[in-house]
Amino acid sequence: MSTNPPRTFSVAPMMDWTDRHCRAFHRVLSARALLYTEMVTANAVIFGDRDRLLGYSPQEHPIALQLGGSDPEALAKAAAICADWGYDEINLNVGCPSDRVQGGNFGACLMRDPALVASCVAAMKAEVALPVTVKCRLGVDEQDPEEALDALADSVLAAGADGLIVHARKAWLQGLSPKENRDIPPLDYDRVYRLKARLPGAPISLNGGLTTLETAQAQLAHVDGVMLGRAAYQQPELLLRVDSLFFGEADGHADAFAAVEAFEPYIAAHLAAGGRLHDITRHMLGLFPGRPGARAYRRHLAIEGVKPEAGLDVLRIAVNEVRRAEERRSLVA
Ligand SMILES: Cc1cc2nc3c(=O)[nH]c(=O)nc-3n(C[C@H](O)[C@H](O)[C@H](O)COP(=O)(O)O)c2cc1C
After folding, report:
1. Tens of each residue's pLDDT in the chain, 333 residues
2. Which residues share a beta bridge with 171?
3. C-alpha 327 – ligand 1 centre gap (Å)
4. Which atom of ligand 1 is nearest to the CA of 167?
5. What is this structure's pTM?
6. Separation of alpha carbons 38 and 68, rounded Å
7. Is 169 annotated as belonging to a binding site?
8. Are the beta carbons of 168 and 210 closer than 8 angstroms?
9. Among the atoms of ligand 1, which is closest to the Cα of residue 17?
């Protein structure tokens, strides 16, 4: 049986972004952050190509797999398969507003059916010894967030959920794209704080709009954990200080240069297995933000890194653009 991974700081599940290579990269930057997979539907886990959907590298632990679905039996079956694959947590998606997901009657529209979500959680808990958590919104459409969030939280916690991650805004299921649904409905952190105050014993994490470690850390006065999505992906360097700030442990690397060097063996192994450099470096474009040479770094990766034969030297040359620009600047200063 796995232990409950600490959710003090986590990186959000993000489709197309938090694939295994992204997670391996984030793991080099922080040894302790809990990393979430992209959402995988229960049926994909049951019927799909498991190596592709569920495969990961051992160094990615602790790692939570996010499932999408609303059929308790299928979710239980999928959860059992994921437990066998060694994941540390199963998370249920009750926050995605996309049409495809709504069409399958899962994701955010489940905010309207707390009893069904509770059945899903209970079915998974009956099948696996792993922690099962739920990632949800404050509500959808015309729902009153006071009632909708309480109803969902009470139901899933009564069903045995081991934690709740709340994306602190509603989702509008009609008229907004998934991207707009991550920005337009206003954030309401106070609503999440009130949930935690009402349920002090329940592990509650807050997600949405956190862009710095300092603002994220301030949330810990109100909730048990924070989850960062876009900021972690777009400015991955902020993960370099997570271990010290959130877990009281030494950070693994002094800077992004050291982290990239430490990541080289992983990249080399991927290339040796026939993979492409771009599979990995596409997740590294946000390194060195605002620094001299950062644009040249990104340009080199964008032009040379996408070529099928691109090797580690392409990454090294790109990183050297930043090093050289910094050296030039320090000579001038
Ligand atoms: C590209 C992208 C893909 C996403 N895919 C998922 C997903 O698969 N499952 C999920 O629960 N949330 C998904 N989200 C939402 C994030 O997990 C998170 O809730 C949202 O971005 C708000 O957090 P942030 O402001 O820190 O980015 C996605 C977000 C982005 C930007």
Report:
1. 345 778 999 999 999 999 999 999 999 999 999 999 999 999 999 999 999 999 999 999 999 999 999 999 999 999 999 999 999 999 999 999 998 888 888 999 999 999 999 999 999 999 999 999 999 999 999 999 999 999 999 999 999 999 999 999 999 998 899 999 999 999 999 999 999 999 999 999 999 999 999 999 999 999 999 999 999 999 999 999 999 999 999 999 999 999 999 999 999 999 999 999 999 999 999 999 999 999 999 999 999 999 999 999 999 999 999 999 988 888 887
2. 140
3. 37
4. 19
5. 0.97
6. 10
7. no
8. no
9. 1
Domains and CATH numbers, the chain: 9-247 (3.20.20.70), 256-332 (no CATH)
Query: From ligand 1's centre to the CA of 50, what distance in Å?
Result: 23
Contact 124, 76 (CB under 8 A): yes
261: tokens are: 């060097």
Per the annotation, the verdict on 96 as an active-site residue is yes
Q: Among 280, 307, 216, which residue's Cα sits nearest to residue 8?
A: 216
Pocket lining for ligand 1, CB < 6 angstroms: 12-17, 38-39, 66, 93, 95-96, 135, 167, 182, 207-210, 228-231
Q: In b/e form, how buried is each residue of 84-119, taking b as 16+ CB within 10 angstroms?
A: ebebbbbbbbbbbbbeebbebebbbbbbbbbebbbb
Q: Is 105 annotated as a binding residue?
A: no
